[in-house]
Design brief:
This protein is of the alpha+beta class and 293 residues long. Helix content is 36%, strand content 27%. It comes from Rhodococcus opacus (Nocardia opaca).
Length: 293
């Protein structure tokens, strides 16, 4: 009977751990899905399709690095089907590096690197969200004052490591877009990032809890003072720094997670170390003086 009860005591924590492990993998898998691959698309004979591929997101500078290229209909190509038969000007808003990109006649459409201004707050890590809204992309034939707007379609690809992106069409003021349409590109951290961040924060909390438990038990004289524990507590204090440094997404110093957790973890560890030192001073006897007989 005792053996069966003992096995049951071990089975419950093991089952709980297995369920937590399976749940974390499930959340990671569901949140990291990118959906079905985009199938082939058709381009109208008088249409320009613009492909914007997000490459990276810099939360601290509110910038999205991207590549921009075009696919054009047959009306814009020479008979060889490879080179443009006219200049095509691409208008990008809100771009900081290339607000206008010119694809020259007689050349093939090439890829340009650019960056867009995003809005968000990195201090809200790991629940920070960023968006480029609105993103306006329009194509014109010709240059300068003689250019004319041509039918433009926009394709967005936002597969940025650590971020899950989605895009949706939005209405735009005609002063900003002659088409009156644009897109909103929104980024949120993947479930994998959130799970990893949660595990690291939990580890930091456990370190502080263990140190506080040892210090309090020693202060209440329920455990004897062992000076080896001083080194152990100091090591846990210094372990917080690398744990904070490998948080996914490198949250800026002063983020809410620092105010809500990191500062209190460090404070608890320092207080526990100080309390343990007090217990050592209180309960340890001074060595006998060599002059005493």
């Amino acid at each position: 009977m005792n053996s069966k009860h003992h096995r049951l005591q071990w089975a419950v924590p093991a089952l709980l751990l297995a369920l937590i492990y399976a749940a974390s993998l499930t959340v990671y898998g569901l949140s990291s899905r990118t959906g079905d691959e985009d199938g082939p698309f058709e381009v109208g004979h008088d249409e320009v399709v613009v492909l914007v591929t997000a490459k990276s997101l810099q939360p601290t500078t509110d910038r999205v690095q991207a590549e921009v290229t075009i696919t054009v209909g047959e009306d814009f190509l020479h008979a060889n089907g490879d080179t443009l038969n006219r200049d095509i000007t691409l208008l990008l808003i809100p771009s900081t590096s290339h607000e206008e990109i010119v694809f020259r006649a007689g050349a093939s459409a090439t890829t340009f690197d650019t960056e867009f201004i995003a809005t968000g707050n990195a201090a809200n890590w790991p629940f920070d969200r960023f968006e480029v809204n609105p993103m306006v992309v329009e194509a014109y034939q010709g240059l300068g004052a003689d250019r004319e707007l041509v039918p433009t379609a926009l394709l967005l690809d936002g597969r940025v490591d650590g971020w899950k992106a989605r895009a949706e069409a939005v209405a735009v003021d005609t002063d900003l877009s002659r088409n009156g349409t644009g897109a909103a590109l929104m980024f949120a951290r993947t479930g994998g990032n959130l799970i990893y961040a949660g595990i690291l924060l939990l580890m930091m909390t456990i370190l502080a809890g263990l140190a506080a438990f040892v210090a309090l038990q020693t202060f209440r004289r329920k455990r004897a003072v062992n000076t080896d524990m001083l080194g152990w507590m100091a090591a846990m204090l210094f372990a917080v720094v690398p744990l904070r440094g490998i948080l996914p997404g490198s949250p800026p110093i002063g983020s809410w997670v620092d105010i809500a957790l990191t500062v209190w973890v460090v404070s608890t560890l320092v207080a526990s170390l100080a309390l343990f030192v007090f217990c050592w001073w209180r309960d340890s006897e001074a060595p006998a003086s060599p002059d005493r007989r």
